[in-house]
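User: structure tokens for this one?
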Amino acid sequence: MESPNQAQCPQWQRDLQQCLRDPAALAALRPGLSAADLEAVLRRFPASLTPHYASLIDPTDPADPIAAQCLPDPRELDAHPWLAEDPLAEETHQPVPGLIHRYPDRALLLVTTRCAVYCRHCTRKRLAGRPSLGTALEHLPAALDYLRQHPAIQEVLVSGGDPLLLPDEVLANLLRQLDSLPTLRWLRLATRVPVVLPSRLTPALCDLLASLGRPLYLNTQFNHPRELAPAALEGLVRLRRAGVILANQAVLLRGVNDSLPVLKDLMNGLLAAGVRPYYLFQADLVQGTEHLRSDPALGLTLMDRLSEELGGMALPRFAVDLQGARGKLTLWPHGKVELTATEAIIEAPDGRVFRYPRPR
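Assistant:
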């Protein structure tokens, strides 16, 4: 029976209180997995699983694609010399704690280390669930001062952890202070809440997001078509009605979505839900993720097929975020262009060559 305090909480907070974190409860969701298998992993990398996301798992399937993304795996403790704790060198590009400035015209604010579900392929596994680490929220005046002093920054991406786990009043204060900066032209949120905790997308939250003066872009991460569940779709409708511009940044994951039928269903499903497929990322070189990394050669092959079978609006960019803060690079599966003084010589995917005259 619920206590009076629990009954007064919003549903999304009650869902967070009911997250699965116990090794035995987590192990029960995958055949052949035991609590003992998970205890060592959980000492290094936390796990949390919302009731909604747990409901998407088939506990009889040892290769379930939802379970692969959220259940701890003993292989996370395997060491590989080509992987790093911080492959994108975020720690070395923080002029203020929690504020990352890698690109001249945009900055990243890490406002929390908490997530509703801790993805096993997370770029920031080093930070996930560690509340003792400083975030931009704790140093917000300094972060705002830095942004004022660098007017070339015209976009701020608010991320974490998951920023939508902040209470409404805290999130409102943060977003309105950013919204007041005259040099920013738009704001962006990075969140997996629509996927794993759709109950968080309340009318009050949507009203808050709709109240901002600048365009607000929300990038989420659906990796498998099964994640486009009814509750998630309803949440996306509420966001769209609030004027939020939605895009998706999927990650290519071994055994999860590294097949043509799955990716095709995912991209078409996203577009039908009003979410623009933006990126398909090659997984970052993060310690504890090797078992989920797919071969970029397979990614190129899949993109080649997707470009033939999807409309342009449903086709994401296939990209890799290069190590050492070198930035994102789009990987093209086909097509070569050679420029001469008078024409562009274009090689099509089937090998045929076309000559396109340049303007004289």
